[in-house]
Amino acid sequence: MSITATHELTPETSTGRPGRLILLNGTSSSGKSSIAEQLLATLDGAWFHLPVDRFHSLRARREWTDETFLPVFQRTVLGFHRAVAGMAAAGNDVVVDHILGERWRLEDCLTVFQGLPVLFVGIRCSLAELERRERDRGNRTVGRAAIQFPLVHQHGRYDVEVDSEHNTPEECAARIRDRLHQAPPTAFDELRSAHGFLAVD
């Protein structure tokens, strides 16, 4: 495909609507990336996969202390949320691969994604299976999933949940696709109310 340089946007550039967000939330090694790949392969249109890990991998390598790294880490996550929102605001459909293991991450998403249609998806997997995957893959920090496991789903509301331990990525993606084409998502609005956010018209 060849794109000729132009100084004007085509009429088709604007979709007239914000893009849709499919927000996959689960621990490390829960299968989010594999499910996202299946969604991109089977959903209609030009969907993008934006994983938070990719943003962390783009950061310069330094010898950080815990004290100096924490604000850098947090700014990376906050910037990731705004990059996702910017893609969606331009009319792009996005599959977001995230770990909402702390309250501030979720609350920032609730703020930054205001006005965007967010299908909130919980990726469930037992701790024993997560630990097995960490050991077998060899490229994951062993013990990370155990730290995240009691935290990542504690907010308690999703539009749809999938079991990545007993279902293939293809089966999980199919369940998410089915929910996407049903009634509008409500989980983020419910969470905004639960967290005391004022409604925005």
Would you mind describing this structure in some detail?
This protein has a single domain, classed as P-loop containing nucleotide triphosphate hydrolases (Rossmann fold, 3-Layer(aba) Sandwich), CATH 3.40.50.300. The longest helix is centred in the middle third of the chain and has 24 residues, at 66-89. It has a 5-stranded parallel β-sheet, with helices on both faces. The protein is α/β, with parallel strands linked by helices. The chain has 8 helices and 5 strands, in the order βαβααβαβααβαα. It has helices at residues 32-42, 52-57, 66-89, 103-112, 127-137, 144-148, 169-180, 187-194, and strands at residues 21-25, 48-51, 94-98, 118-124, 160-163.
| Mean pLDDT over all positions | 91
For the record, give the distance between the C-alpha atoms at the N and C termini, rounded to a whole number: 41 Å
Gross morphology is: globular
SS element count, helices: 8
Strand content: 5-15%
Q: How do the helices and strands follow one another from N- to C-terminus? A: EHEHHEHEHHEHH
The profile of the biggest β sheet is:
5 strands, parallel
Strand order of the largest sheet: 2-3-1-4-5
CATH topology: Rossmann fold
CATH architectural grouping = 3-Layer(aba) Sandwich
Q: What's the total count of β strands? A: 5
The helix content, as a percent range, equals: 40-55%
